[in-house]
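Sequence only, no structure available. Ideas?
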Amino acid sequence: MLVNISVLTFTNVKKIIEEAENRKSKQNFKPKNMIKKPLLLMMLFFAFTAMNAQDLISPSYGFSHSKTAYITLADGTEINGTIKDIDRDKGLIEFIKLQDGAGKKHKLKPEDIKFMYLPPSGLDNLGKKLNFLEDFKKWNDEKLNQDFLNQGYAYFETADVKIKKKNSKLLMQLLNPGFSKEFKVYCDPYAKETTSLGVGGVKFVGGDAKSYYVAKKDSPAFLLKKKDYKKEFVPLWGSCEKIISANPEPKWTDLTKHVITYSECAEAK
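Reply:
I predicted one. Tokens follow.
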């Protein structure tokens, strides 16, 4: 999967920089903490050349309060509106306050929501516009709204998640919407990351997560850690001989390749 960053023009980049500087000004950042425009532009340029290699979407944590969010409730009701507030508990969304087009305010808990598309804000939206290539369309979940994903929206869904020995229904952010039909990779809000280059809390280069929640089709998600990957490799991918034979020394950095190969195996059955 490619992250389509060619759609970002210089004007868009300039606008994003100005928005970031305005936020810093309002928050009374001291000069020593301010980031020079040339440095930011250099980082953005570096990002443009590096993000094409990313396989998973980097998770979104900041969301726009002006663009429309699209939420489908557990009973099928659809609510479209602007986000007023998001409260988190231990990294997971605890509730969302939303105001719809009629001015009505809603306070939604995870159990109220089936799935939702949230618009990332400012710099957090960089590199998240997806380009669904023909080769990957056969592996993406047809239920997903590709138009929203192409615009850079973050997709969350209520999923069964196994934590220790207990299964819970949690609102999880999907990181591989372009090839999630057979195997899903969700954000672990507690995940530590490798060294990254970034600005204003937004990472451009590096920053690979050391853990994800993952789930095979119709199975609960569970926490998969980098340090445990070799041990979990055969139990996870054993049903696909192509993965096992081609990876005598499994690498965490090849996780996405393994997901795609597994999708090929599942599709062939």
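The helical segments are 10-26, 37-50, 134-137, 146-150, 229-237, 241-246, 255-268.
Hope that gets you unstuck.
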